[in-house]
Specification:
globular; Arc Repressor Mutant, subunit A; alpha/beta; 337 residues; Rossmann fold
């Protein structure tokens, strides 16, 4: 199964694209829907989808900016541009970022399906690299937990995996090493404002291993222990806020600001504290509240969706089925209502 992120600020278009993709299940599955380039980039950094279908014109960073970030970091993600602007300049810029699928609105379902199917071979060729980014994310998520012995062992195991990569993509190994370096330095900056980013420029394996050994030593020397109660308290404060204000429009940036943490550090600590990503936690709380409201026969399903924070009924239905395994209508029938 290939996981798809849809980035589009117009809700009805986003719903339509997601529903088109869902009709190709189980091969393709929509795992996220966002309304801005910034939200899309934050989602990618946590969930690492296989495909991003993005509009060009969006608030808070547009689709070309998002495509450039994916291309600059050589991420194993297929990006598809959807645009209402029949403008060759956009297409030309998109091609510079390695994008071959440039789809015009109004989007035809057959055209989107064909583009997704054309991407399968490329996606299969990226499978090993995609597994690599998940291993890197898992390593970063566990950084606050590791003592010296564990950290050194994990670093060596991760480097061994990267050096065993068989992918024929140019610079595949170097891009994975650079991603590990970037995300680790980003975490470092989050916990130590004085940290100077250590640029990754090494070419030979010995130099690479020394670079990451030095980074590990510096991390162990400076990282404040996760047992710090103020950090735990800040995550609990956010959880308590979500539990009460679940109907509000959340963004990862806003919640991280509430904790006075960077987005990357907040995401890592939130996952460590709760056992799930922030987005999954929010959806879990909302759907639980929706299940309670579905016991009220006088409430329409679209009213319940709005009451728990979903402005889009189709998106609510998809999230509900994803979490509960049945649709809201089916859930109500099982209650005998």
């Amino acid at each position: 199964m290939f996981q798809v992120l849809v980035a589009e600020d117009e809700v009805w278009i986003r719903d339509a694209i997601a529903e088109m993709i869902d009709r190709l299940a189980p091969q393709f599955n929509v795992v996220g829907e966002v309304g801005s380039g910034e939200e899309a980039w934050n989602f990618i950094q946590e969930h690492w989808p296989s495909i991003v279908v993005t509009d060009i014109m969006m608030p808070h960073r547009n689709g070309l900016w998002l495509s450039e970030q994916i291309h600059r970091m050589s991420l194993p993600i297929v990006t598809m541009i959807v645009s209402g602007y029949d403008n060759f300049q956009y297409a030309k810029q998109a091609m510079r970022y390695g994008i071959t699928e440039y789809l015009l609105k109004p989007l035809e379902e057959e055209e989107l399906h064909d583009a997704l199917k054309r991407s399968v071979q490329k996606l299969e060729g990226m499978a090993e690299l995609h597994e690599g980014v998940h291993k890197i994310q898992h390593f970063i998520d566990r950084l606050p937990d590791m003592d010296r012995q564990t950290l050194n062992a994990e670093v060596q195991a991760l480097l061994a995996y990267i050096y065993r990569l068989k992918s024929g993509a140019p610079g595949a190994r170097k891009s994975q090493l650079a991603l590990l370096s970037a995300k680790w330095n980003e975490m470092f900056r989050a916990v130590d404002q004085e940290h100077t980013f250590l640029p990754f420029t090494e070419e030979d394996e010995q130099g690479v291993r020394k670079y990451f050994a030095d980074l590990a030593d510096a991390w162990l020397l400076r990282y404040p222990q996760f047992a710090n109660q103020s950090v735990k308290a800040s995550i609990k404060k956010v959880c308590d806020y979500i539990n009460v204000h679940y109907f509000e429009n959340f963004s990862l940036t806003r919640l991280a600001d509430m904790s006075h943490l960077s987005v990357s550090y907040f995401s890592t600590l939130f996952k460590k504290t709760t056992g799930q990503t922030c987005l999954n936690y929010i959806n879990g709380v909302r759907i639980q509240k929706a299940k309670e409201l579905l016991h009220e026969p006088d409430l329409k399903i679209y009213e319940i969706a709005d009451m728990v924070g979903y402005t889009s009924l189709p998106y609510f239905n998809r999230m509900f089925k994803q979490i509960v395994a049945v649709t809201p209508i089916e859930y109500r029938k099982r209650l005998g209502l």
